[in-house]
Amino acid sequence: MKGRSAVDIAAQVEIAKESTRVWTATQRVWEYKTLVKLLPDHVSRMAMVKYLIQNGYLILNKPFDEDMDCAREAPGTSDSHTSTTSAVATSPVACTASSSPQEEEETSSETPSSDERTRDSSRRSHSTPTVREAMQAGGMYGKCPPESKLLVGFKDHLIGALQVQNCQQEVDNVSRFLCYMQPEGEPNLEFLNKTTDTMGYMKALIQSGLSAATILNYWKNIIRFLEYVKGSIDINVDRVKIEKYIDYLKTMRKPVARTHSGDVCSTRYDRIVDGMPTVHECNLVLQTGNARFLDIYNRMAISKTVVSPTDKTWYRYYCEALMMLRHFQRPGAVEGMTVKEWVNRKLTDGRYLIGIKKHKTGATHVATIALTLEEEAWYQGYYEFIRPEFVRGECDSFFLSARGTKITSGSSDLNRLHESCGLKHVSRTSGQVRRAAETLVATSFTEKQKQNVAAYMCHSDLMADKHYRMPVPSTIVATAILLDTLPGDCQPPTKKQRVDAGFSENRIYYDRWRKCQYADRQEHLLSYYTYQKPSCGKMERLISKEGWTSNCPNAQDILDMWKPAVKYVIESDKHILKSCSRQKWKGLVIKSFDGQKGEGVVATTNFTKGDIVCDYHGKVITKADGETMMEELGNQACYFFFFKAGGENLCIDAQTWPCQCHPGLETFGRKINHSSKNPNIMPLSVVLRLDDEDVHTILFKATRDIKVDTELKFNYGVNRKSFRGEALDLDWLDE
Ligand SMILES: C[S@@+](CC[C@H](N)C(=O)[O-])C[C@H]1O[C@@H](n2cnc3c(N)ncnc32)[C@H](O)[C@@H]1O
Q1: H or E element that contains 348
Q2: Locate the SET domain: which residues (predicted)?
C-alpha cells in the first residue's frame, strides 16, 4: 500500500475486515460429516478434530466430548492409520449406542479360547474404562438399528439353524462391525470391496486396547456372519467374493492369534514361576471352618437347639464352598441347583448323586455331584433346618439368600467364607481349585479317568467335545471317589474330630435314624386326635396297641405336643382360592421314587396341622362316567377321586392330563400316594367360587405337623379286598 492515499488504504482495510468477518462466520465452522468424508480413517479424523478445536474452529455435530477426550489420550495415533478408500465413518445419528462392551462381554457364551484362564484375564482387561472410551473414540461403539434386515436374518439363523439361543452378544459384535464400515443407512455388503477399511477396523480394535482373545472373538463372529450370508438364498451376493473376503479375514487375524498364544503362554509361565496353589491350599477354608461347621450342625440337627441367623448363613456358605472346593463345581452349578434336584438325589454305590440342569455354562450336559453320606447329612441339615426359614415366595432354588431369593453369586459367598475364617489374604476361587485338580489329574490319571473328570467338572462344550462321554451314575460316583484321592485335606472328619465336635462315635446315622423313628411315632400317635385332646389313659392304650418294644414314645410327652388344628374359613380364604385357580401351591415338589411307586409329593417347607396343603385338581364328572373311564384303563394307574357332595356321587378326573385350564402344568393332587397306616393329610370336600363359578373341590388338609422332606400321603379309602377282590395283589394298599 506504499504510496497509496489514506482514503485508498482506509477502503482496503474495510474490505479486509469484511473478508475476515465473512471467513470467521463461514469458514471456521466445520460440519463433522464433511470431515468424515475427507478423513475416513477414524483415528486420523479424531486427531484432526482435536487440532481444529484447539485452533478455535467450530465443529458442528461432532461426537460426544468424552470421545474427544479419548482421542486426546491416545498419543501417536494420528499418523498410524491412513486410508484412501471410500468414506467409512461412525455417525452418532445412524448408530444406536450399545451398553458397555464390557457388560456384554460378560454375558457372552462364545469365546475364542477354550482356556478359561485367558478368557477371564481378557475380560478384566476389557473392562477398564479406557478401553471402552477408546472404542467409542475409535468409532467402534455404535451399532446398526436392530431391525436391519441383515442383522435380523443373522439372528434368526443363529437361533433357528445353529441353535445358539444366547446369541445377542454375537449379533451385537457383527452390528458394531457393520456400523463401523457403513455408518449410515440400512447396512449392506459394500464392505466386501473395502479391504483397506477392514484392515483399519482390525487396527482400530487393537488400538483400543482390546485383548487378543476378544479381537479373535469379533473376527470369529464376523466370519460366521459371512458364512450365513454366503449360504442364504434370500441374499443376492457374489459368493466367490465372500469366500475371498473370508480368506482375507483369516490371514489378517494370524498375528493376533500369535499374540493370543503368547498371552496364554505368559500366563502359564507366571503360574510356573509364581507357583500355583495346590488343591490342599485351595481347600484351606474348608479345613479352617470345619470345627465351626460341625458345631453348628450338631446344635441344629442333633441337639435341636437354637442357632443364630449369622450361623445359619455361614453354614450355607460352607455348604456352597463344599460344592465348589471339594466337588470342583462352578459357582453356576451352586446357584442353579433346585429343590427338585435335591429331593430327587439318588443313592448310588454309597454316594448321593445330584444332577443340576441349570449351571450357567455353555456345556450341554447336566452338572453332577456325588456326595458322601456325611455330606448328604450336612446338606439335609441345611435343607431341613435352615432353608425353610428363608423361604418367602415360590423360589425353587436350593440355596436361598436371606431375602428368600436365589443366591446370586457363589463366588462372593466363597469370598465371604474366606473373610470370616480370617483367610481373606489367601482367598481361593473355584477356578483355582479346578485348575489345581486338573493339573494333578493330567499327571496321574489315565485317559479314561480324565474324560470322566472332565464330565464331573462339567467342562465347557469345547472341552467336553474332547473329553465328554455321557457318564453313567456309577462312573460319576467312581470319579468322585477318585477325586478324593487328590492331595488335599478336605476328607470327611476323623472319628476323633467327630467326637470332639459333639457327635457320638460312629453312631451318627443310627442315632439319626432312631430320632427320626421316634419323631415319626409321635406324629403318628398325634394324628389320631385332630380336634380333641385325648386323655393320658387313652394315649397309653393306643401306644401299647402298636406293640413297639423299644424307642417307644411317652404318652405324656405326646399330650404336651398336642394342639388343635388351625381352623380356616376355607371358602373365603384368598390364598386358597388363588392357589386353586392358578394351580400354584407353595412348599411342594414332585419326587420320583425307586421301584413301582413312581412319583409322589414331598414337602419342601414345614406345614402345621390343619394347613390346607393343596387340592386334587381335575375335571368334575359323574361317578358313573369316572367308573366307565376307569374300567377302560384296566390295570393302569388311575388318577380319579370319587366323592359324595350334596347328595351327588361325583368324581374328579385327573386322568385326562394336562388339563385344559393349565396346559403344561403338573398338578400335585394326582401325584399323592396312598397310606392307610400313616397318612398325614386328609381330603375335604368343599364348594369354592373359582373364576366366577361354583366348583366342587377336594382340598387336602394336614392332619399333623408335616416337616420338610416328608412325603404327603392320604388314605385312598380302599383296601385289597375292594373292587370285588380284584385288588388282592396290590401290596401297596396295605401301607
Ligand atoms: C394316583 S397315583 C399316585 C401317583 C403315582 N405314584 C405316579 O407316579 O403317578 C396312584 C398310583 O400310585 C402308586 N401308589 C400309590 N400309593 C403307593 C404306595 N404307598 N406305595 C407304592 N405305590 C403307590 C400305585 O401304582 C397307584 O396306582
Answers
A1: strand 346-348
A2: 586-717
Nearest of 353, 594, 326, 598 to residue 471 by alpha carbon: 353
The model carries a pTM of 0.52
- The pLDDT value given to residue 706: 92
Instruction: Determine whether the shortest distance from the Cβ of 735 to ligand 1 is under 6 A.
Output: yes
More confident residue, 458 or 544: 544
- The x, y and z cell numbers of residue 682, run together, are 386328609
- End-to-end CA, the chain: 123
Which residue in this structure is represented by grid cell 491412513? 82
Task: Tell me the backbone φ, ψ of residue 644, rounded to 5 degrees.
Answer: -115, 135
Cell numbers for 702, please give them: 394336614
Instruction: Identify the CATH number of the domain defined by range 570-734.
Output: 2.170.270.10
Please, are residues 207 and 140 in contact by the beta-carbon 8 Å criterion?
no
**Ligand 1 pocket residue status of 597, Cβ below 6 Å:** yes
Decide if 682 contacts 700 (C-beta within 8 A): yes
Going from the C-alpha of 128 to that of each of 75, 139, 157, the distances in angstroms are 18, 17, 33
Q: How many residues does the chain have?
A: 735
Report d(CA 40, CA 197) in Å as an integer. 9
How much is the pLDDT for 61?
A: 63
- 3-class SS of residue 662: coil
Task: Give the least confident one: 22-26, 86-90, 142-146, 231-235.
Answer: 86-90
ipTM: 0.99
Instruction: Confirm if 343 and 709 have CB atoms less than 8 A apart.
Output: yes
- Which region among 269-283, 399-413, 525-539, 685-699 has the lowest average model confidence (pLDDT)? 269-283
Q: Which residue among 589, 597, 601, 630 has the greatest number of ligand 1 atoms within 8 angstroms of its CB, and so is best to mutate?
A: 597
Nearest to 312 by CA among 206, 399, 212: 399
Calpha distance 481→627 (Å, rounded): 53
Identify the DSSP state of 41: S
Whole-number pLDDT of residue 527: 79
Give residue-wise pLDDT tens across range 225-244.
Answer: 999 999 988 888 888 999 99
- Report the candidate in 216, 214, 208 with the shortest Cα–Cα distance to residue 180: 208
CA distances (Å), origin 83, targets 67, 250, 575? 21, 21, 70
Q: Cα(43)–Cα(61) distance, rounded to whole angstroms?
A: 17
Dihedrals phi, psi of 634, to nearest 5 degrees? 65, -125
> Angle between the 168-181 and 195-207 helix axes, to the nearest 10 degrees?
120
State how far the Cα of 457 lies from the Cα of 329, in Å rounded to an integer: 6
Edge-to-edge strands of the sheet including 619-622?
619-622, 648-653, 640-645
H or E segment to which residue 559 belongs:
helix 555-561
Model confidence pLDDT, tens digit, residues 572-628: 899 999 999 999 999 999 999 888 889 999 999 999 988 999 999 999 999 999 999
Residue 120 Cβ contacting ligand 1 at under 6 Å: no
Domain 279-493, CATH among 1.10.10, 1.10.443, 3.40.50, 2.60.120: 1.10.443
Q: Between 212-231 and 195-207, two packed helices, what is the crossing angle to 10 degrees? A: 150
Q: Which of 348, 344, 397 is nearest to 373 (CA)?
A: 348
- As a whole number of angstroms, the distance between CA 243 and CA 192 comes to 10
Cα diameter, the chain: 141
**Could you tell which of 674, 713, 734 is best to mutate to test the pocket of ligand 1, judged by most ligand atoms within 8 Å of the CB?**
674
Q: What are phi and psi of 705, to 5 degrees?
A: -65, 135
- Which contiguous run of DSSP H or E holds residue 539? helix 536-546
**60 and 29 Cβ atoms separated by less than 8 Å:** yes
Within 10 angstroms of residue 512's Cβ, the number of other Cβ atoms is: 15
For ligand 1, what atom is nearest to the CA of residue 671? 4
Residue 15 beta carbon below 6 angstroms from any ligand 1 atom: no
